[in-house]
Structures are given as structure tokens and as C-alpha cells.
Amino acid sequence: MADNSSPVSGLAERYATALFELAEDDKALAELEADVGRFATMHDQSDDLQSFIRSPIYSAEEQLRGVSAVLEKAEIKGLVANFFQLVAKNRRLFAVPGIITAFRRMMAAHRGETTAEVTSAEPLTDAQVSALKAALKDSLGKDVALDARVDPALIGGLIVKVGSRMIDSSLRTKLSSLKLAMKEVG
């Protein structure tokens, strides 16, 4: 993930702001958010799509064809399809994960929510999402939108980031801490 002060994050913020403002004009924020969510889900679940988006070796035409095929498969049309096709034409696909995160943050702020980035080893069930939202609402005092990601390398547990705060209860981190503690003893 890009640092908040990096050029990529600034680029992602500008694109996300443009998308948000276009949708706000169309009064279609809910539909737009659903389409962006479907694209994000495809991105998160496909290593091939992630590699394609990050790779600088593809020409603008190849990127446009690839993104258009993904959008068609996801049945994403209209403003969101045009937006991601424009991103591909401008050779800015590498910024897509940051754009999605920034857009979700803007949507949450628009609804008066705060956004929590949650990374888990496996996809969270609806019950787990509800329980996590309730726990975060109790802790923060306001509604929370989750930006969920899956990282099998965590082995188990969660990493939750809200603003500058992070709670890392992943098994990977606990094992790393145990390994470090054992090195200090032995």
C-alpha cells in the first residue's frame, strides 16, 4: 500500500475525487459504490488481475482491452466502466488499488462513517463483518465502513487499521514475536 504522502497516493486521491464528484452529480452514488465494489472484489480475488494492473509492460491499448474484458465479465457499465477505461488509457492502472481505497474512504465520509481497513487470512463471513462493525462502532463511537482484504500469509487473525491506529492480531505477527523472543533467550 502506498504511503499517504507518496505521488501514487496523491494520484489515487485525485482520480477517486474525480469519480466521486462525477457520481455526486449523477445522484448515483449507491450504484457507483456497488460497481466499484464488484471491481474491487474481482481485483482482490484474482492474482492475474493484480499482476496485470501492476505490470508496466503492457501498452495502453492492451491495458484498455484487458480492463474492458474484466468490466464486461463483471457486468459493470456506465460511469464506472468509462472511468476505469480512462484510467487504463492514461496508463494509470497501477493506481487502481489506491483509487478504490480512497473512493471507499470518501463514500464513508459522505455517509458520516469512518473507514477501517481490515485484512484477514480468509474472507470474512457476514456474521463476522457484522460483529466487527459493532465492536468498532462501540470503540469509535460512530458507524464504520469496512474495506476488507484477504491475505493468506496472515495464517489467521486480523489486521485492523482505522486512521493512524492499527491493531494486528494476526498469527503471522504473533509467530514472528515468538521467534524473536526465542532468539533473545537462546
Topology diagram in text:
Blueprint: H1 7-26, H2 29-45, H3 47-54, H4 60-73, H5 78-89, H6 96-110, E1 114-120, H7 126-140, E2 144-150, E3 158-162, E4 165-168, H8 171-185
The strand order across the widest sheet is 2-1-3-4
Q: What count of helical segments does DSSP give?
A: 8
Mean pLDDT: 88
Given as residue ranges, the uncertain stretches (5+ residues, pLDDT < 50) are: none
Main beta sheet, described?
Answer: 4 strands, mixed
The coarse silhouette is globular
Give the radius of gyration: 18 Å
Query: What structural category arises from helix and sheet content?
Result: alpha+beta
User: What is the helical fraction, as a range of percent?
Assistant: 55-70%
Count all strands and give the number: 4
Strand content: 5-15%
Can you write the helix and strand succession as a string? HHHHHHEHEEEH
N- to C-terminal separation? 35 Å
Looking at this protein, list some descriptive labels.
about 190 residues, alpha+beta, 8 helices, 4 strands
Would you write up a description of this structure?
The chain is 62% helix and 12% strand. The chain has helices at 7-26, 29-45, 47-54, 60-73, 78-89, 96-110, 126-140, 171-185, and strands spanning 114-120, 144-150, 158-162, 165-168. A 4-stranded mixed sheet has the order 2-1-3-4. Helix 1 (7-26) packs antiparallel against helix 5 (78-89), helix 2 (29-45) runs antiparallel to helix 6 and helix 4 (60-73) packs antiparallel against helix 5 (78-89). The mean pLDDT is 88.
